[in-house]
Amino acid sequence: MTNLEFAPYFPWAWLAVLAAIGAALIGYGIVGRARGLAWRSLAVVALLAALANPVLVEEERKPIDDVAAVVVDVSPSQSVRDRTKQAEEALGALREKLAAMPGLEVRVVRAGAPGTAAGGMPTDGTLLFDSLAHALADVPRKRMAATFMITDGQVHDVPAADKGQPFAGPLHVLLTGEPGERDRRITVVNAPRFGLVGKDVEVRLKVEDPGAEGQPVKLTGSKDGGAPVETTTQVGRETAVRVNLDHAGSNIFEFAVEPAKGELTEANNRTVVTISGVRERLRVLLVSGEPHPGERVWRNFLKADPSVDLVHFTILRPPEKQDATPVRELSLIAFPIRELFEVKLDEFDLIIFDRYRRRGVLPSIYLQNIAQYVERGGAVLEAAGPAFATALSLYQTPLGPSLPAAPTGKVFEERLRAHLSKDGFRHPITADLPGADDPEHHWGRWYRQIDARAEHGTVLMEGVQDKPLMVVDRVGKGRVAQILSDHIWLWAREYDGGGPYSEMLRRLAHWLMKEPELEEDRIEAHLEGNRLVIVRHSVEEDSSPVEVTAPSGEKQTVTLADGIGGRARGTASVTETGLYRITDAKHTALAAVGTLNPLEYADMRATPAKLQPLVDATGGGVQWLSEGFPELRRVHAGRRTAGRGWLGVAENREFTVTGVREVPLLPGLALLLVGLGALMLAWRREGR
Amino acid sequence: METPERRLADWLDSLPDAERDALARSYTRASAEGGATMRKPDGREVPIPPLLPVPQDHVLTKSFYLLSQFPGRVTGGTVWVEARGNRYNDGVSSVIIGSNDWAGAWAVEADGAASFPVVPGGERQREMAYRFGVNWVMYALTGNYKTDQVHVPAIMERLGQ
User: Fold this and answer.
1) Measured by CB atoms within 10 angstroms of the end CB, which terminus of chain B is less buried, N or C?
2) Contact A311 B63 (CB under 8 A)
3) Radius of gyration of chain B (CA)
4) To probe the interface with A, which of B64, B88, B123, B147 has the most A CB atoms within 10 Å?
């Protein structure tokens, strides 16, 4: 490449001044009709040209390779059917054809694999453009020849076509899969995020299966990993499913639709809905057998709990103590027994008997009702007083068989120190209670314990001679607890330093009312960063491993290390989005990672629709690989880059300059000679 | 058991009626401004919350017997309870102060006869003094229980829904 350039010895402005003077002199000569004017003009021009110093510049150029990017989608949707094989074959053919084009660099990016987003969190959906931008960060746009995407078209980060493109050159899409594929899937149209515990909520689902609208399909639902329930619906029609929230916290429902014949994948035939159960206020019935110093501990603790509605009855005067005081001077009312223990019994979440004794107030038919209420799922807490050791004991009523500890008839009235049993250290009701590791120094003394044998249930706290002081048990669907002393109020009064009565009673009451966080035998799992932390609570030491099943069905075994408070821990790494299932012989826990219904599996049918706008905007083309591999053509930049059956690769003809050679066109000396010669000729002409 | 309430009660018991009444009045003036304490004879400070005269509908009037007055050996003195209630204690007053000398009305000799005549007089006044004593003990043991009772119909109604 050669150019004519000037390299003046003086700035152009000076030359302009000299040229102006020369022109003025010549002009004067013309006006004065001077002789030899032609020779003088030639001298001026020759001198000016010498000063402007024209040079020939010769550049040495080297062509630069254009860049063609190839993005291979390796997201999970690419693994259905033979899409992976299709993609690899297409990549091989593409490499071969591109390699045959001179001056073309090929960059291959595999993108869209799960678990590759920043921050270590699993990604949601297929993100190809992100990886592409990364791979082309160092390539100037003018070098881009073409971008090929080998994908099923389910790309979830396609930039808007009108918003400046991330790369230059045409975007060509080589589609895996086949046109008109069939895939049945289930979608959640509407589901509440919260609901009241014990109440039904409605989840609206829809089965989509384009082309099969109206067909009846089987729909199954299961709750918290339990047994599935089956129902029937129609493809394309919204179905309302009523589900019951039976506990507080996350209620996880899985819905699945039966697979269709010849469908792409069953991965999206199931979906998960998580609904947080919110408890209504808990209703507690407190029955105090007599006014006593500990009564207000129960009242204060229950009334201070904002989640509790308390109904309290105290037997202020037993029936046998009638006197002549007129009723209108007494503040006593009749116990609404039938109402409480028959009509409204099931409305209560917990019934507490506080130093209750048989006094002919509650006929045994009602105590029988309470025993049945426990079997049905109710809860009873018996805080025993000295009468528990006597014939007036609640143990001697139809409720007796439900109580885990049987009185021996003896009452210890001596200094005693409550302490946790071995199980107590592991049970969520008492585990980690402040001071439990050294009750001698941290827990105040009590002075009464009703002697009892624990015939069933779990002893959590012991007193005199390691005899049971607090016992819990499950009866039927319900729960029962006993406290075998009425001196817990000494802790409340901080006598001898007091003790953690309010925390203990709160946990006890909420365990009785089935608070999920206080379950003593369960597995829970939660996310910490990109690790799944698995905690198994068990009263018995349990070292069995758990199996973690990823959303894709991949399984790993995790060993849990037993630790304090009855908690065994372990961690598993998490790479996928969706529902992880953690199981051991007895329990199942579910943990949701990222989005429960991942974008990736939402629609797996191959389609050009998502990429089409960008393909059109960049002048690219779309080719179904199932219809053959297209011809590739090298085309000049600015020409058409796609046509029927062919895809173009732009030729940008970029270069770098590697060297420059300058050749002065008019040597100064020659010009000087021309100038002088012209002057002499002019002089001679004048002199004639 | 040594509690602030007990120490206070012991000390108040040891005072003559007039002094107690004067104390209650002066204390009430002080408590209106808040932050008052009383000094026991042994020099220890006893914290006393702000007080107010027992309202007409206070639980003390219905914790067992229905009462409209709280007579003791004498009658007519104002009875004081904690003004705001104790929120850690379900609003139950941690102190009751009065000058009606209830113990004087309850006191009996070895033969069962009353130690002192009640003023202005009558067995009804002594019976009321006993009843106030019962209400006082019931208040200490059951707290605001009797204020619950008026809510029970409402609660029962709520349960029915």
Assistant:
1) C
2) no
3) 17
4) B64
Distance from CA of A376 to the nearest CA of B (A): 19
What value does the mean pLDDT take over residues B121-125? 85
Question: H or E element: which one contains A44?
Answer: helix A37-52
> What number is the ipTM of this complex?
0.76
What one-character DSSP code corresponds to residue A169?
Answer: S
Which residue in chain B is spatially nearest to A294 when comparing CA positions? Answer: B141
Q: Give residue B4's pLDDT.
A: 47
- The residues, ordered by sequence, that sit 6+ positions from B111 with a Cβ below 8 Å of its Cβ are none
Per the CB < 8 A criterion, the answer to whether A562 and A228 are in contact is no
Burial tier of A411 (Cβ tally within 10 Å: 0-12, 13-18, 19+)? buried
A217: left (phi over 0), alpha (psi -120 to 50) or beta: beta
SS3 letters for chain B? Answer: CCCHHHHHHHHHHCCCHHHHHHHHHHHHHHHHHCCCEEECCCCCEEECCCEEECCCCCHHHCCCECCCCCCCCCCCCCCEEECCCCHHHCCCCCCEECCCCHHHHHCECCCCCECCCCCCCCHHHHHHHHHHHHHHHHHHHHCCHHHHHHHHHHHHHHHCC
Interface test with B, best of A290, A300, A341 (most B CBs within 10 A): A300
- Determine whether A649 is exposed, middle or buried from the number of CB atoms within 10 Å of its CB (0-12, 13-18, 19+): buried
Cα A111-A117-A119 angle, rounded to 5 deg: 160
Q: Who among B3, B144, B146 is closest to A331 (CB)?
A: B146
CA dist., res. A37 & res. A340, Å (int): 134
State the first-to-last Cα distance of chain A, in angstroms, to the nearest integer: 50
Neighbouring C-beta atoms of residue A661, cutoff 10 Å: 11
pLDDT in tens, B70-96: 998 888 888 888 877 666 678 888 888
**pTM for this one?**
0.68
Question: Would the CB atoms of A493 and B3 count as touching at under 8 Å?
Answer: yes
Q: Count of CB atoms within 10 A of residue A683's CB? A: 12
Q: Do A311 and B3 touch (CB under 8 A)?
A: no
Q: Where are the alpha helices (DSSP H) in A534-621?
A: 599-602, 612-618
| Mean of pLDDT over chain A | 86
